[in-house]
Amino acid sequence: MTYPVMRELPPEQRPRERMLKEGAANLSDIDLLAIMLRTGTARASAMELAAELLGRFRDLRALAQATIEELSELKGVGPAKAVQVKAALELGKRLAALPAEERPVIRCPEDVCALVMEDLRDRDREYFQALLLNTKNQVLARETISIGTLNSSMVHPRELFKIAIRRSAASVILVHNHPSGTPRQAEDISLTKRLVEAGEIIGIDVLDHIVIGDNRFTSLKSKGLI
Length: 226
Description:
Blueprint: H1 15-22, H2 29-37, H3 46-57, H4 60-65, H5 68-72, H6 78-97, H7 109-120, E1 127-133, E2 139-147, H8 157-166, E3 171-177, H9 185-202, E4 205-212, E5 217-219
Parallel strand pairs: 3-4
Antiparallel strand pairs: 1-2, 1-3, 4-5
Helix pairs in contact: 2-3
Protein name: MPN domain-containing protein
GO molecular function: metal ion binding; metallopeptidase activity
Domain MPN: 105-226
């Protein structure tokens, strides 16, 4: 198979540009390897060199085990490119060897408060955040969706679920603080129902909405309000 010269590809089809737009997970092994090589030669494009490397060493595991000298034997690679490839693959090996990260598990509203209370209770503005969970209710991330004023925070479903989709969340728990101390239960319920409905369409469950006060909290789910 013949691979095109990188500069002859339309910008939106080049591996580097595709990675910026689509993310690394959507690129092939050859695309990623071509990005590591950066440039080709008069004989072969970076993608052709990447394909030749993978062809010679069969797969990524064998490629990672190859020495710099073995990588350099391929015409057009040389020591400099071999070092780049070897360094990137070594980083991947070290990442794979790291111990599994302990992720907090959310079983009840108190678990949410243990994560967010100390940070949110004294804020002078309203922070609307989301805990993004996997299928085991482990916390993948805690994201701030919007920062409002003393007594208001505008949240659009698009902003919440764009982040949830990007992080491959199975469900979310909404969290925000009331720095003014003034309850706005009707507004909170209305917003939550809107987000729940949007989540149902997308396929990401909104499990609860926790409202944080000064060392106290309210779970809309526990109160049967959502």
